[in-house]
């Protein structure tokens, strides 16, 4: 029988503050082991010095989300690995939902369990059951170590954005399923939200710095081509339309977006040296 003792957790940090420390405190007693991997340039170990249940690793530079996740995963020994963003909120209800599912429905073809995501743009409501999904976010997802051992780790060349989608598509092509547990809900903070009103109708959408749109366009196109995934091509078009229709400072965003497209076509991955303002 699976229990919380079978679950280790990796939390990727970037310039954390005291609010993040308070969030991490909530991990105690929920999982067996917690690894904090810090992509900040500064060592922030003092922030977490009073949390005896965590292991803190400072990378002293931003090595990208994929590399940081891989570092943390390699530090863990548990057969199930929960990955988390620093400001997503874990709960024992979510962990219990995963454990209950695996203790009654586990199969060799299940590669990972993922939750519903409760955000300010898309509130989630608890419902029964589970379903296979194509894509999800890595934050709050519980992966099987055995699958990492068979298909490899997260692709560090992508650096930032689409890292989780590439892994889930690779997992699928290898015969593994991604299962969403509908009564597992994760409170998640995506990019900053803006609201545009058309009379009584309000449209909420996310916004991030131009550099993120470089990584998103590059990694979406590169991954879409690799796995022949129509969903990612559609997402790429939506990103472009958001810039054209909704964003200020369109020139910087379009410059970053189009450079990402060019680099994807040239198979030029890794960390981008330009910040695009």
Write the layout of secondary structure elements.
Layout: E1 7-13, H1 18-25, E2 33-38, E3 54-58, H2 65-75, E4 80-85, H3 92-105, E5 110-118, E6 130-133, E7 141-144, H4 145-151, H5 163-173, E8 177-187, E9 192-198, E10 201-207, H6 210-227, H7 230-246, H8 250-265
Parallel strand pairs: 1-2, 1-4, 2-3, 5-8
Antiparallel strand pairs: 4-7, 5-7, 6-8, 9-10
Helix pairs in contact: 6-7, 6-8
Notable characteristics:
37% helix, eight-stranded mixed beta sheet, 2 domains, 8 helices, alpha/beta, Spore Coat Polysaccharide Biosynthesis Protein SpsA, Chain A, single chain, 277 residues
Task: Provide a short characterization of the protein structure.
With 277 residues, the chain is α/β, with parallel strands linked by helices. The chain has helices at residues 18-25, 65-75, 92-105, 145-151, 163-173, 210-227, 230-246, 250-265, and strands at residues 7-13, 33-38, 54-58, 80-85, 110-118, 130-133, 141-144, 177-187, 192-198, 201-207.
Describe the structure.
With 277 residues, this protein is an alpha/beta fold. It folds into two domains: 4-187, Alpha-Beta Complex (Spore Coat Polysaccharide Biosynthesis Protein SpsA, Chain A), CATH 3.90.550; 192-265, no CATH class. Helix content is 37%, strand content 24%. The protein contains eight helices and ten strands. It has helices at residues 18-25, 65-75, 92-105, 145-151, 163-173, 210-227, 230-246, 250-265, and strands spanning 7-13, 33-38, 54-58, 80-85, 110-118, 130-133, 141-144, 177-187, 192-198, 201-207. It has an eight-stranded mixed sheet. A two-stranded antiparallel sheet has the order 9-10. Helix 6 packs antiparallel against helix 7 (230-246) and helix 6 (210-227) packs parallel to helix 8 (250-265). The chain starts with 6 loop residues before the first strand and ends in a 12-residue tail after the last helix.
